[in-house]
Specification:
mainly alpha; two-stranded parallel sheet; two-stranded antiparallel ribbon; 623 residues; 6 strands; globular; 72% helix
C-alpha cells in the first residue's frame, strides 16, 4: 500500500467510522463502543504503517485526473493541489502514531468507564471524528487546510462534555468560546502572513521576526497554539474541563490529543515557520517557566483531584514550551520527548481518576482514603504515573526533563539576554518538579493511603476494560524511562529532532538496574532482619487512646501554603478570577454592554443627541 493510501486511511477511516456511528440508535451504546474500538484498532495499524514510511510531500486530491485540464481550470487545479498538500515528515508521523495509540487505548477504557449519567450524546461518534481530524491537522502542510482541521476540533472538544448540569454546561461553553476565539486570532495571523507575501505552505515558510507585522503574525498563531495546549495565560479552560467532563474525555483531549496538537504547532512555529529573535525567545521562556510554576502552585491547593490533575496538565506544558523556546538540539529533543511522556502519564492519571470516581462517586480528596486495599491495580498505576510526572528516575518523566535541563545549560553558552539568564530557567524548572512531587504525595496519600471507609469495602478492581489501559500506559512510562538513552531517544526522538550530543551523563538502563537492586535489597533486609521485630500497637495521642479509624486530613495540610502572606494574595486573586482571561474578557464585555444599556434610556431627546454627535464625528473623520 502506498504512503498516499495509508495517509488517506488515517484521516478518512476515523471520520467515516464516526459518521456511521451517528446512524446507530443511542440505546445500543456498547455496540457503538465495540465498533469504535475496532475502527480505532485498524486506525492504529495504519498509524504504525505510516510511521515506518519515509518523509515525503503528498497530494491528497482525489480524482483530479478526471477533470478536463482546460486552460480555464488550470489555475483552479494548481491552487487545489497546493491547498491539499500533506507533509509526511518525521514529526507529523510521530504525532499520528501516538494519536492512534491514545485513540485505541482510551476508546477501550471508555467502553468500561462510561455509564448512563456521564455519557455525552454520540460520544463514540465525536470521539472517532476527533481522531481523524487530529491526523488531518498534523499532516496538513497548507496553513488554511491546517486551520480547517484545527477548527473542527474545537467543536468536537465541546461535544465531548455532556453538559448534564449547569457546571459542566458552563465548562463546555467556556472551552468552546476560548478555543473558538483563539482560532479566530489564528486566522488573523494567517492573513498577516499572506499580506506579507510569504507562502502559506508550512514546510516552505521561514519568517524572520525583525519587524512589527511578522511579530504580530507570530503572536496571533502562538495564541492559538498556547490555548490548545493549555499554556498560561490561556489555560483556564483546562482545569474546568478536567473537573466536569467525563474522565475519558479529559484523558482523550486536554491530556493527550490537545497537548500533542498544541505542542506540535508550537514546534512548527518555533523551529520551522518563524526565526525567533532574542527578545521573543526571552518572552517565550518567561511564559514557559511561568506556566510551570503557576500551574503547579494552583494544583497544590486543590481538593478536587480531577481539578488538581487539570492544573498539572497546564504545568507540564511549560516544560515543552521552555524546551522548544531554547532552540538548541537538546532543548528541542527534550520538548518532543516530554510531549510524548506527558501524554502517556497524564492520560493515565485521568484514567485513574475516572476509575476512582466511578467506584466511589466522589471527587474530593478528603472524602477518600485507603483505596489501595481494594484497588491495588489502580494504585500501582497511580504510583507509576505520579512518580513519572514528578520526574523521579528511572521513569520517563525524568528522562525528558533531564534533556530539557541539559538543553538549558547548553543554551547558557550563548550571548543573548535570555542565554545569560539560563540559571533562572533551570532553577524554576527544577523547582516545579519538586512542587509536582509534593502535590502528588497529596494525591496518592489522600486517595489511596490511610484508613478505608466501610462504604468502600465492596469495591472490586477487576474489570479488564478499565485495568488494561492503565497497565499499558504504566508499562510505557517504565519502558520509555528504562530504555530512554539506549533505544527511545536514538530511535524515535533523534529521527525527528536531529542529531545532538549530551552535556551530561545519563545511562538510563544502568540507573534502572541500580534502583531495582536497591528495592530488592531493601525488601530482603526488611523480611530477614526487620519485619519480625516490628511491634504493632494502638496509637496514643495527647493522653488519649486514638481511634484507629481516625485519619489525618491530607488536603488540610496543604492549606498552610495558601496562608503564606505573599501566596495568600495570589490565591485570593486567583479565586476572584483575575488570572482567568475568559472571566476578565467576559467582565469587560458585560461592562460595556451595561454602559450601552444605560445610555439607551428610551428618551427621544437623548437619542437625538447621540445621532447629532455621531454625525459630527463622521464629518470630522471625512474632513
Amino acid at each position: 500500500m502506498s504512503t498516499q493510501n495509508v495517509l488517506h486511511m488515517v484521516i478518512i477511516l476515523p471520520v467515516l467510522a464516526g459518521m456511521v456511528l451517528f446512524l446507530i440508535p443511542r440505546q445500543y451504546f456498547y455496540t457503538k463502543g465495540i465498533l469504535a474500538c475496532l475502527a480505532a484498532l485498524i486506525n492504529l495499524v495504519f498509524s504504525v504503517l505510516l510511521f515506518g514510511r519515509s518523509s515525503e510531500m503528498i497530494n491528497i486530491c482525489v480524482g483530479k485526473e478526471l477533470i478536463p485540464a482546460t486552460s480555464a481550470l488550470q489555475a483552479v487545479i494548481a491552487q487545489a493541489e497546493s491547498f491539499m498538500m500533506m507533509n509526511s515528515d518525521g514529526l507529523g508521523r510521530l504525532i499520528v502514531l501516538f494519536v492512534g495509540l491514545f485513540t485505541f487505548v482510551i476508546c477501550v477504557y471508555s467502553l468500561g468507564y462510561l455509564f448512563s449519567r456521564t455519557r455525552p450524546k454520540h460520544y463514540f461518534s465525536w470521539f472517532m471524528i476527533t481522531a481523524g481530524f487530529s491526523n488531518g491537522a498534523v499532516m496538513a502542510d497548507h496553513v488554511l487546510l491546517f486551520i480547517f482541521f484545527w477548527g473542527i476540533l474545537g467543536l468536537t472538544l465541546y461535544k465531548l462534555v455532556r453538559g448534564h448540569n449547569s457546571l459542566s454546561a458552563s465548562a463546555a461553553k467556556k472551552t468552546f468560546i476560548l478555543i473558538g476565539a483563539s482560532d479566530g486570532i489564528m486566522i488573523l495571523g494567517v492573513a498577516l502572513i499572506w499580506h506579507l507575501g510569504y507562502p502559506l505552505s508550512m514546510s516552505s515558510m521561514s519568517i524572520t521576526t525583525g519587524n512589527a507585522l511578522p511579530v504580530a503574525a507570530f503572536i496571533c498563531l502562538v495564541i492559538g497554539a498556547f490555548t490548545k495546549a493549555g499554556a498560561f495565560p490561556f489555560h483556564s479552560w483546562v482545569p474546568d474541563y478536567a473537573s466536569y467532563a467525563p474522565a475519558s474525555s479529559s484523558a482523550f483531549m486536554p491530556a493527550s490529543l490537545d497537548k500533542l496538537l498544541g505542542i506540535y504547532f508550537i514546534a512548527r512555529l518555533f523551529n520551522q515557520m518563524f526565526i525567533l529573535n532574542e527578545w521573543i525567545t526571552l518572552v517565550m521562556l518567561i511564559v514557559g517557566v511561568s506556566t510551570i510554576i503557576i500551574g503547579v502552585m494552583m494544583a497544590l491547593v486543590q481538593h478536587n483531584y480531577k481539578r488538581l490533575l487539570g492544573y498539572h496538565a497546564v504545568s507540564q506544558v511549560g516544560y515543552m514550551v521552555t524546551g522548544f523556546a531554547l532552540g538548541t538540539p537538546l532543548g528541542i529533543a527534550g520538548g518532543l520527548f516530554h510531549m510524548l511522556n506527558n501524554a502517556i502519564y497524564k492520560s493515565g492519571l485521568f484514567l485513574v481518576a475516572g476509575r476512582v470516581e466511578r467506584h466511589t462517586g466522589r471527587n474530593m480528596i478528603e472524602d477518600l482514603g485507603g483505596l489501595s486495599k481494594v484497588m491495588p491495580v489502580t494504585f500501582f498505576a497511580a504510583v507509576v504515573f505520579s512518580l513519572a510526572i514528578a520526574g523521579i528516575p528511572p521513569l520517563n518523566g525524568f528522562a525528558s526533563k533531564w534533556l530539557i535541563y541539559q538543553g538549558i545549560i547548553e543554551f547558557g553558552k550563548g550571548e543573548g539576554v535570555a542565554n545569560q539568564l539560563w540559571i533562572v530557567w533551570l532553577v524554576l524548572a527544577m523547582f516545579g518538579s519538586a512542587l509536582t512531587l509534593a502535590s502528588f504525595v497529596k494525591f496518592l496519600s489522600g486517595i489511596f493511603l490511610g484508613h478505608l471507609k466501610d462504604v468502600y469495602l465492596t469495591i472490586k478492581d477487576n474489570r479488564f476494560l478499565l485495568c488494561a489501559p492503565q497497565i499499558l500506559l504504566a508499562a510505557l512510562c517504565i519502558v520509555f524511562g528504562v530504555f530512554a538513552a539506549e533505544w527511545v531517544i536514538p530511535k524515535i526522538i533523534v529521527s525527528v529532532s536531529g542529531e545532538f550530543s549530551y552535556t551530561g551523563v545519563w545511562e538510563s538502563a544502568t540507573v534502572s538496574l541500580m534502583v531495582a537492586l536497591s528495592i530488592i535489597l531493601g525488601l530482603l533486609i526488611y523480611v530477614l532482619f526487620v519485619g519480625k521485630k516490628v511491634r504493632i500497637d494502638k496509637p496514643f495521642m495527647l493522653g488519649e487512646q486514638a481511634d484507629h479509624r481516625a485519619g489525618f486530613p491530607v488536603a488540610e495540610f496543604y492549606k498552610t501554603i495558601s496562608e503564606t502572606p505573599f501566596l495568600r494574595f495570589m490565591y485570593k486573586a486567583a479565586e476572584k478570577k483575575y488570572f482567568d482571561i475568559y472571566e476578565v474578557a467576559r467582565g469587560a464585555v458585560l461592562g460595556v454592554s451595561k454602559g450601552l444599556s444605560w445610555l439607551h434610556q428610551g428618551i427621544l431627546p437623548v437619542y437625538m443627541i447621540w445621532i447629532i454627535a455621531g454625525l459630527l464625528i463622521m464629518l470630522l473623520i471625512v474632513m
